[in-house]
């Protein structure tokens, strides 16, 4: 596909700022690359680059072309990747980014449910509180609790979740309602900055002018958490209407903090269709959340 080659060449020239440097990377002569660009410019009827003494830069039509070619190349890369997986006998890979307040709670159970249904699919996970991974095309789905509106991103699934307090089973406040006056004595384990739950926690602390003994970010991408018996509490997201007591842990009523709920949201790119693994995960996640509601 010759148009893909010239698209990639234009990307490289723009990145290097020089036809000569781009030609070195492509291991062809600068004159050959320049002829290809000139022929393409003649075909389009516009100058893609402005020739400068120090190199080249995109013209206004060139900037528009680069935007369109970047999108086209990304889609074609997705297509070739899928074809390669099919020809290699692979079922595909789920590429997912997950907010830090879901990696220790929702993620392990959701992935277990997904893999039970689709054991042949691979999984690649990265942490991310926003849709940045989607916009950079590093992932196909972003699971977040603080969705920020982006023109290139749309909501694929959304469901409210509860906010719970978890303590060691021997903690004196197991099953009790947390008094605001007790909070400064606690070491709080909280999710990373930028997550929906962390936003809710920080707003509540400011609202009541509370300063806990310590704020620590709890471990990420871990299936379990070992809490100390006294004065330590994890504030976490739970997607179930009736939150079970985890083994070795107890629950504390956080209603005085008025944290409300967060929204578990799956985001996808607005353009194009989801790759098969991401589409299957989205369906499995919807069933999983519905069953727990």
Describe this structure in words.
There is one protein chain. The strands form two sheets. Strands 3, 4, 5, 6, 7, 8, 9, 10 and 11 form a nine-stranded mixed sheet that branches. Strands 1-2 form a two-stranded antiparallel ribbon. The chain is of the alpha/beta class. It starts with a helix and ends with a helix. It has helices at 2-16, 19-26, 30-44, 60-87, 106-117, 132-135, 196-207, 276-292; strands spanning 49-52, 55-58, 93-98, 122-127, 141-144, 153-168, 187-190, 214-217, 232-238, 249-252, 261-269. Helix content is 38%, strand content 23%. The chain has eight helices and eleven strands.
Q: Could you describe the largest sheet, including whether it forms a barrel?
A: 9 strands, mixed
What structural category arises from helix and sheet content? alpha/beta
Q: Secondary-structure element order, as H and E?
A: HHHEEHEHEHEEEHEEEEH
Quaternary: single chain
Alpha plus pi helix count = 8
Low-confidence stretches: 220-224
What is the CA-CA span between the terminal residues? Answer: 49 Å
Shape: elongated
Provide the residue-averaged pLDDT: 83
Round the Cα radius of gyration to an integer and report it. Answer: 25 Å
Give the beta-strand count: 11
Summarize the structure.
This protein is α/β, with parallel strands linked by helices. The protein contains eight helices and eleven strands. It has helices at residues 2-16, 19-26, 30-44, 60-87, 106-117, 132-135, 196-207, 276-292, and strands spanning 49-52, 55-58, 93-98, 122-127, 141-144, 153-168, 187-190, 214-217, 232-238, 249-252, 261-269.
């Amino acid at each position: 596909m010759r148009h893909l080659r010239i698209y990639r060449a234009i990307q490289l020239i723009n990145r290097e700022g020089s036809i000569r440097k781009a030609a070195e990377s492509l291991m062809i002569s600068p004159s050959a690359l320049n002829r290809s660009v000139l022929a393409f410019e003649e075909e389009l009827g516009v100058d893609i680059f402005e020739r400068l003494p120090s190199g080249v830069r995109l013209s206004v039509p060139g900037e528009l072309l680069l935007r369109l070619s970047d999108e086209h190349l990304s889609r074609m890369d997705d297509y070739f990747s899928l074809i390669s997986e099919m020809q290699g006998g692979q079922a595909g890979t789920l590429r997912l980014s997950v907010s830090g307040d879901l990696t220790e709670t929702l993620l392990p159970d959701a992935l277990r449910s997904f893999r039970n249904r689709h054991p042949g699919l691979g999984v690649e996970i990265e942490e991310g509180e926003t849709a940045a991974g989607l916009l950079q095309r590093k992932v196909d789905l972003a699971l977040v609790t603080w969705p920020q509106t982006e023109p290139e991103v749309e909501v694929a699934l959304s469901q409210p979740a509860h906010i719970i307090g978890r303590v060691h089973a021997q903690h004196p406040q197991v099953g009790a309602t947390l008094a605001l006056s007790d909070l400064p004595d606690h070491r709080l384990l909280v999710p990373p900055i930028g997550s929906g739950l962390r936003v809710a926690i920080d707003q509540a602390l400011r609202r009541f002018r509370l300063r806990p003994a310590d704020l620590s970010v709890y471990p990420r991408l871990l299936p379990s958490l070992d809490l100390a018996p006294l004065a330590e509490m994890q504030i976490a997201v739970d997607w179930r209407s009736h939150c079970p007591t985890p083994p070795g842990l107890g629950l504390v009523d956080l209603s005085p903090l008025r944290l409300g709920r967060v929204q578990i949201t799956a985001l996808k790119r607005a353009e194009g269709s989801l790759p098969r693994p991401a589409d299957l995960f989205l369906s499995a996640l919807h069933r999983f959340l519905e069953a727990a509601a």
